[in-house]
């Protein structure tokens, strides 16, 4: 293990999917930028096969990004920390790698999500602020490198992605074993719960403050925040995933995706996970939000058939938003402003979730509210859940009843 490798951040290896070419050519370009790795046995072959694996997922940016993250971390650990190639990995090595991911060195942890590469004078150059791991700085933890924890969800993703990755390398006759499959005691890394994990959501009070705060921001700066208000309402009111708002190789969300049926009811066509299209019910409130935003854009009150206006346009420039990072930043800015407003109103304790909430919490919150009043079959279809079991996670009636029955238990029972 190289001490220098632990004390210095590694360089990014793999660019966005639209900047990758032939795996052989791309691997040579990557190693040209990293001369210290050029003489290490197996590095070039590792990189070529890894790139071949990743480009097979060019149909979904979200899937490519999650697979790239896990593959890139593993390669950096193999080459820089372990000093070996993929072919030399065994079960014990993978266990050491998982432990490394659970507590990476401070130099490998960043404060925020940033792009790996950026354009500079027509060339793609590495972003010196990029790190393999990210621990968002918060108001309670301004030093993001302190208290880093790899969540159970992240650990599950690590095992799932790397198992698929090694199976691919086996099928390509590049490796002889899948070291992930040999880790029989995954349970020492992955927890099994005898209870259903609670859905992460914000409270109704927090959502009220978010709406009021963003509406005030839109009044003060409509050029930027009318879009913010519309996006927040889309995420909550239609339970959209962040990937369903941005343009990628699967689809480009446009205003014409809103349409009516023969009864005059409004729907939104969405292309979701697995490249599956679904129709989401548009409520009267959501329709009014759409009218407001379209008036701001100088458009007619409601979309016309086949309208190609981007659903979420760029503020600067033309065309649709193409990066989920922009949506994440927009939502985080709204959460931060709402948290500060709640604090100013003496509600700091009630505002805590806004410090850690993510975009996806709005989807969870919208579903959790609707499933209280709507038939769960309808909510399932709108949310695009593959099974009713997923929708059932949002129904917490049994938990409420269970808590209510225990609420007045006495620590000193009456005689």
TrEMBL record:
Q: This protein's superkingdom?
A: Bacteria
Keywords annotated in UniProt: DNA integration, DNA recombination, DNA-binding
PROSITE patterns given for it?
TYR_RECOMBINASE
Spell out the Gene3D superfamilies in the cross-references.
Answer: 1.10.150.130, Intergrase catalytic core
Q: Where are the transmembrane segments?
A: none
Tyr recombinase domain span: 200-408
Q: Which GO terms describe its molecular function?
A: DNA binding
Which residues fall in a coiled-coil region?
A: none
Kindly state a single biological-process term from the GO annotations of this entry. DNA integration
Kindly give the InterPro entries that the UniProt entry links to this protein. Answer: DNA_brk_join_enz, Integrase-like_cat_sf, Integrase_catalytic, Integrase_recombinase_N, Tyrosine_recombinase_XerCD
Any single GO CC term annotated in Swiss-Prot or TrEMBL for this entry:
cytoplasm
Q: Where in the cell is it found?
A: Cytoplasm
Q: What is this protein called?
A: Tyrosine-type recombinase/integrase
* Organism for this UniProt entry: Venatoribacter cucullus
Lineage, please?
A: Bacteria, Pseudomonadati, Pseudomonadota, Gammaproteobacteria, Oceanospirillales
């Amino acid at each position: 293990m190289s001490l220098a490798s632990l004390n210095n951040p590694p360089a990014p290896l793999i660019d966005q999917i639209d900047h990758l070419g032939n795996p052989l050519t791309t691997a040579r370009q990557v190693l040209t930028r990293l001369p210290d790795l050029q003489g290490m046995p197996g590095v070039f072959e590792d990189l070529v096969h890894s790139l071949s694996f990743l480009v097979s997922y060019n149909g979904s940016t979200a899937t490519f990004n999650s697979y790239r993250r896990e593959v890139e971390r593993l390669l950096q650990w193999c080459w820089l920390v372990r000093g070996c190639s993929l072919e030399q990995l065994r079960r014990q090595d993978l266990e050491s790698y998982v432990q490394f991911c659970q507590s990476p060195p401070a130099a490998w942890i960043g404060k925020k999500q940033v792009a790996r590469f950026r354009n500079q004078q027509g060339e793609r150059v590495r972003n010196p602020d990029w790190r393999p791991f990210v621990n968002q700085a918060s108001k309670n933890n301004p030093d993001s490198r302190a208290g880093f924890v790899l969540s159970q969800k992240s650990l599950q993703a690590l095992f799932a992605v790397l198992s698929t990755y090694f199976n691919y390398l086996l099928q390509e006759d590049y490796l002889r074993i899948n070291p992930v499959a040999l880790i029989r005691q995954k349970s020492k890394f992955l927890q099994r719960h005898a209870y259903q994990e609670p859905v992460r959501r914000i409270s109704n009070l927090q959502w009220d403050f978010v709406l009021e705060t963003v509406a005030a921001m839109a009044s003060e700066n409509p050029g930027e925040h009318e879009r913010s208000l519309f996006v927040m309402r889309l995420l909550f009111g239609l339970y959209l995933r962040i990937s369903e708002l941005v343009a990628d190789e699967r689809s480009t969300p446009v205003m014409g995706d809103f349409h009516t049926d023969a009864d005059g009811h409004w729907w939104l066509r969405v292309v979701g996970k697995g490249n599956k299209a679904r129709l989401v019910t548009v409520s009267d409130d959501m329709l009014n939000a759409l009218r407001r935003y379209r008036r701001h854009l100088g458009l007619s009150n409601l979309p016309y058939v086949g309208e190609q206006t981007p659903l979420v346009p760029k503020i600067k420039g033309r065309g649709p938003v193409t990066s989920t990072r922009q949506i994440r930043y927009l939502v985080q800015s709204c959460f931060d402003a709402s948290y500060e407003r709640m604090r100013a109103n003496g509600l700091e304790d009630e505002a805590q979730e806004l410090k850690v909430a993510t975009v996806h919490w709005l989807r969870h919150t919208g579903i959790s509210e609707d499933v209280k009043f709507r038939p769960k079959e309808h909510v399932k279809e709108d949310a695009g859940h593959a099974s009713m079991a997923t929708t059932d996670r949002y129904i917490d009636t049994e938990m409420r009843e269970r808590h209510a029955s225990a609420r007045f238990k006495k620590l000193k029972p009456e005689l």
